[in-house]
Amino acid sequence: MLGFFRDIRTLSLVDSLPRFGLYSKGQLEEGNSGGIGFKRPKKEILLQHNYFFTSRYLLRARTMSVTKAVSSLDDVVVKSPNDRRLYRVIELENGLSALLIHDPDIYLDGSAADGEKTDGDQMDEDDEDGEEEEDSDGSYEDDDDEEMEGDEDEVKEKGDHQTKKAAAAMCVAMGSFLDPPEAQGLAHFLEHMLFMGSTDFPDENEYDSYLSKHGGSSNAYTEMEHTCYHFEVKREFLRDALKRFSQFFVAPLMKTEAMERELLAVDSEFNQAIQNDACRLQQLQCHTSTKGHPLNRFAWGNKKSLSGAMENGVDLRECIVKLYKEYYHGGLMKLVVIGGEPLDLLESWVVELFGDVKNGSKIRPTLEAKGPIWEGADLNSFISVVRSQIYIEALCHGNLSEDETINISNIFKNSLTVEPLPVKCRHGEQIMCFPLNAKLVRDVTVKNRSETNSVVELYYQIEPEEAQSTRMKAMLDLFHEIIGEPLFNQLRTKEQLGYVVECGPRLTYRVQGFCFCVQSSKYGPIHLLERVDNFIKDIETLLEQLDEESFEDYRSGMIARLLEKDPSLLSETNDLWSQIVDKRYMFDFSHKEAEELRSIEKKDVIEWYKTYFRESSPKCRRLAVRVWGCNTDMKETQTEPKSMQVIADAVAFKSTSKFYPSLC
């Protein structure tokens, strides 16, 4: 992913860190970032020699004099008196600096801190030397078995206690500014290639599969001056996740055959982004910058810029390996690890797993950026316009008493003349009720005549929220957890349909559904829908062949995710506010869903799938929306089977349809 437009909400690790200041003992300096990847707060910390990727800040410290394998600083972070976390900055002999964070809330029962057996207490049974440690049978799988059994017992013992995930992020101080002119987009392409297997874990899907299996996720992005990789995972599996993660920076394979496939993924990402106006403006800024300036380049990269380079005699793999060897070294790497284990244990993991990262120089230039050209006072004249159209719906929570909350609400009531909207004037959100066994299709052409992307979104309507809505939501989420990664692996990695391949629950005004979506500039909508349909038919086999251990991994991972403690007050507010918007008012919804998950078995998921996704079932009701790109011909629909009902006139179709009662 190119960093300009990433969704910052994916950085759960980053969001969990404090917005800290720094001691001003000549150690650290404050300034503005020189990167253009995204707008940064004014109080951002400027890097002088070393980068520490923490929260949404980059910390810059003067070079520490280190002679031992590890040096430690425990007083770098200025934190709130209410912050129970412990912090330590270490530096390895290879120059890599790491911020280690012990969060006691990750293990609420203190099990990790008390020295009980965790994932990290076991040595690597699958090291190359094959050595076996005492009390270990040398089996990686058995290691996971023990962890999962312990996790299941812990979740049951904890009851409704909220849990948090462990996470890590690595920031490498190199980005698209270092792309060679003959292969623009190379840094972004390199980011993609590091996910394609390593010497110790050659399976291209191993890293993502491991995280998905253990309640985690990962992502990465490339900006102009740095590249960031990050993941989160269920707390017990931090060490093994770090082991796989560390190989990105030690021994990635970057195989030629993987390059050919991933080049298509980069091209699909570009074709997706080029339709976004923000992306277009960002690239226009690059294109119109001064010739010779590092910004004057094509940072995204696509098939033309990268594959075209090979046609011009450039050895793309050689360029990637050269870029990696030159800049992916400890001197330019800053790591953050947050877990529930003691700092000493986290430190030992980082030293062991990242000690093999290549050594290198740390010297980097200092760059500064100017602040915004406008002030908040410039908007004062617009206040009266806002007030004339305002209505108020409020939520107060956190460190407030009931009396304080009432006083705050009275301030708004007394200062703003707003009357409640009569019930009869409120808009009722009604959702169409698909008929039994509906197989609907809506075809539309792109409005932009140069748009080459085609899209298929397949929506399955399940049920409106009723008494059993919590169980239905649990079933939807667990189903998504199980099939999400196989869908991506099959349709994007193997079949290379396009960059966008995704699925997930769809809640529309409290009517539950499930969606599959594929976007492609290479294939037309009919082919895309056929491939999605083929995958959906194979889900039954996938579920039946899923062993009980793997099913329990998915289920316990979902439970742990639902019971995670909100990483911030903003996150908690969003969860509570969604209950108000939907008029559900179940402020402990995640706890109730976790309880429902404990009673769901594999056979329940299979029967649920047969009820709502098997074509022969009356409750299988679906709508396929097919968007035809400019390079496709809608006449292909004339040869399709007549079993589908084509919606030629959407307005006429709605006028003859039934609707669910308004639920919100």
UniProtKB/TrEMBL annotation:
GO terms for molecular function: metal ion binding; metalloendopeptidase activity. Pfam families: Peptidase_M16, Peptidase_M16_C, PqqF-like_C_4. Its cofactor is Zn(2+). One of its GO terms (biological process) is proteolysis. Belongs to the peptidase M16 family. Keywords: Hydrolase, Metal-binding, Metalloprotease, Protease, Zinc. Residues 478-577 form the Coenzyme PQQ synthesis protein F-like C-terminal lobe domain. GO terms for cellular component: cytoplasm. Residues 160-283 form the Peptidase M16 N-terminal domain. PROSITE patterns: INSULINASE. It comes from Brassica campestris (Field mustard). Transmembrane segments: none annotated. This is Peptidase M16 N-terminal domain-containing protein. The keyword Zinc applies. The keyword Protease applies. Residues 110-162 are annotated as: Disordered. Residues 320-366 form the Peptidase M16 C-terminal domain. Residues 121-154 have a biased composition (Acidic residues). InterPro entries: Metalloenz_LuxS/M16 (IPR011249), Pept_M16_N (IPR011765), Pept_M16_Zn_BS (IPR001431), Peptidase_M16 (IPR050626), Peptidase_M16_C (IPR007863), PqqF-like_C_4 (IPR054734).
